[in-house]
User: What shape does this take?
Amino acid sequence: MALKRNVGLLEGLKYRGGGPMLAWLLHRISGLGILVFVGLHILAAFLTQQFGSDAGIFINIIYESWAFQIFIFFCVLFHAINGLRIIILDLWPALLEYQREAIWLEWFVFIPIFGLAVFVIFSGSLGG
Amino acid sequence: MQVTLKIFRYDPEKDKKPHYDAFKMEAEPTDRVLDLLEKAKGYQDGTISFRRSCAHGVCGSDAMRINGMNRLACKTLVQDLGVNKITVEPILGLPILKDLIVDMEPFFDNYRAVTPYFINDEPAPAKERLQSPEDRERFDDTTKCILCGACTTSCPSFWANDQYLGPSAIVNAHRFIFDSRDKGAAERLAVLNDLFGVYRCHTIFNCTLACPREIQITQAIGEVKKAIATGKLD
Assistant: This one.
């Protein structure tokens, strides 16, 4: 009997697609990260306002921590810049010929902005 | 140089689970992976199963995952891989029949769905249907497809669901949609505008990188998406 066609997550991740596949994976992960952030925000506000619960304050402490702030900034910034790349390539398919350059340009824009943001968040957290 | 060829093995009559067998052999840097497979089958284990036909990158029979990426075994040189440990596995997303042989039928079902042949019910002219060099150039890139399946089986959207037509079927639809002599574009665009049509493409580019004929597949898919959105074939 033939072996089923199912492709597991690990098997899929082992495929060597290179930079474009990494960008696609990070786009998915950052999308989920944004969903978690927004979900926590709504949950915290709901618990605090409706029940005056300490659980809301606890959730606030989690997503206001510097580590979570860096993670969520990574998610939002990467999702936005990568999304912009995809939109531009979708609207002008002729530019797809330069997709490698588009990914380099994306990282070229992302890294300095993200680096600056990490520096500001760190400085803020260390300075109290 | 000494190389180790690690081959994915699965015999439906003996094995419950697939496993890997390693074969050590002498190889030249200019040997192709197909040559190594032939050596392993010819001199070490005659039960190794894989497809091959022309062995010159034309028939598209020997698409497989070589060191984690889809390639044609007959077009991949040992020196191009840069390592002396080579892992060969079947392409992903299709049922495995034996060792490196997969059932290509779901792939060809998707291919047939886009009516990949010339459609024109108008009476044929006495000699031929003329076409300008510019009109011919419009779809030149997508005429190069050899239906090896390397693109479709490198696509995570196809891994998730084999009802997605896949890059190869879209490339072959593109070849006729943008042919000025063909009249079946509307019919094909309707198929491609479906739930499992072009919009399952998330511009991951695995297909473009995997294509042994270097077809700009994602660009072709982008052009089809644009034709559907605008209703124009420019």
About this structure: Chain A has a mean pLDDT of 90.
